[in-house]
């Protein structure tokens, strides 16, 4: 009893620190002025219904921007019309894909307002977006030769080089997203007896287990040994930051941004184009497997796509055919 009275329970401190770390998206003035039901709907929309932090930020910014537009028109939430939504989208100087994101955010937001009886009808439901047909993704592809060049250009005489080689190896040999690689803990690299695997936690909470190639397994184990991490806590981050230029590892997790900057730095050092990114490895791996005749369904499973059409967006074989054709023009 004396412990409870004199000191806050450990879980309370954890909850407070976690709550303080969650980014706060400011409530728009138009929502604030519409009363408690509207404010509740805003928090339900931002924090309750959207679990992905990137989607939460994008939708929150889109709705806030639209509501500022409504303020200039003298509208309140109950008087917004489909015409207002349509005119707003028409005046956005954005790509079609970004306009579709804004419209999606508005539809979700007004759906919650309808559910909470703040407005009677959703003005965004009747508004149609521009048609967008994507046959190939925009992510630049890194060639197989360039990927090999990058791996071989890394100085692995220190733990930082070994760490970076292991991260890039995972991006290449598993086609995982950089966010999933950043989330790896020590317990996510494990042996099944006959092979080692990596367990990724990806978008929408999807958990996937992918076997590691012999060379990738070597990359990871070399890094763990050099960093003295073989006996680390199973829930500790697998890939850690360093103390400035000392090449000493900290206990902090590398974020997706840290890994992205690392890949950019390694590409510059390896003499590769600046436009490449961690996602470029995903494109190359998918295209390479499809070029070898691996069934689309198997490649889809490796990439963790719910729809095969998404996997096809990463396929660059058609671009290669087009280049071959245009090079044959005799003019």
UniProtKB/TrEMBL annotation:
The keyword DNA-binding applies. InterPro entries: CB, DNA_brk_join_enz, Integrase-like_cat_sf, Integrase_catalytic, Integrase_recombinase_N, Integrase_SAM-like_N, Tyrosine_recombinase_XerCD. One of its GO terms (molecular function) is DNA binding. Residues 137-327 form the Tyr recombinase domain. It comes from the Bacteria. One of its GO terms (biological process) is DNA integration. Residues 33-114 form the Core-binding (CB) domain. Keywords: DNA integration, DNA recombination, DNA-binding. SUPFAM superfamilies: DNA breaking-rejoining enzymes (SSF56349), lambda integrase-like, N-terminal domain (SSF47823). Belongs to the 'phage' integrase family. PANTHER family: INTEGRASE_RECOMBINASE PROTEIN MJ0367-RELATED, PHAGE INTEGRASE-RELATED. This is Tyrosine recombinase XerC. It comes from Stieleria maiorica. The gene is xerC.
């Amino acid at each position: 009893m004396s412990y409870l009275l004199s000191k806050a329970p450990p879980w309370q401190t954890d909850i407070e620190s976690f709550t303080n770390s969650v980014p706060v998206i400011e409530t728009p003035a138009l929502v604030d002025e519409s009363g408690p039901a509207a404010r509740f709907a805003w928090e339900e929309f931002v924090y309750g219904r959207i679990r992905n932090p990137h989607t939460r930020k994008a939708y929150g910014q889109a709705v806030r921007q639209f509501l500022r537009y409504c303020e200039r028109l003298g509208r309140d939430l109950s008087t917004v019309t489909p015409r207002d939504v349509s005119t707003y989208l028409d005046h956005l100087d954005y790509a079609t894909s970004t306009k579709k994101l804004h419209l999606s955010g508005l539809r979700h937001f007004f759906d919650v307002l309808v559910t909470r009886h703040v407005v009677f009808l959703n003005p965004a439901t009747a508004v149609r977006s521009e048609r967008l047909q994507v046959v190939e993704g925009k992510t630049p592809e890194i060639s197989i030769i360039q990927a090999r060049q990058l791996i071989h250009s890394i100085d692995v005489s220190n733990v930082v080089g070994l760490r970076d080689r292991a991260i890039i190896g995972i991006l290449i040999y598993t086609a995982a997203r950089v966010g999933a690689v950043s989330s790896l803990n020590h317990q996510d690299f494990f042996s099944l007896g006959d092979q080692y695997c990596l367990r990724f936690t990806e978008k929408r909470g999807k958990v996937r287990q992918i076997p590691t190639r012999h060379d990738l397994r070597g990359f990871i184990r070399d890094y763990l040994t050099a960093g003295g991490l073989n006996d680390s806590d199973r829930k500790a981050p697998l890939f850690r930051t360093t103390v400035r230029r000392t090449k000493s590892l900290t206990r902090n997790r590398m974020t997706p941004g840290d890994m992205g900057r690392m890949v950019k730095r390694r590409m510059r050092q390896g003499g590769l184009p600046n436009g490449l990114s961690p996602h470029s490895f995903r494109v190359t791996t998918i295209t390479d497997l499809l070029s070898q005749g691996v069934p689309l369904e198997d490649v889809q499973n490796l990439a963790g796509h719910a729809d095969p059409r998404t996997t096809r967006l990463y396929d660059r074989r058609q671009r290669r055919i087009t280049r071959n054709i245009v090079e044959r023009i005799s003019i």
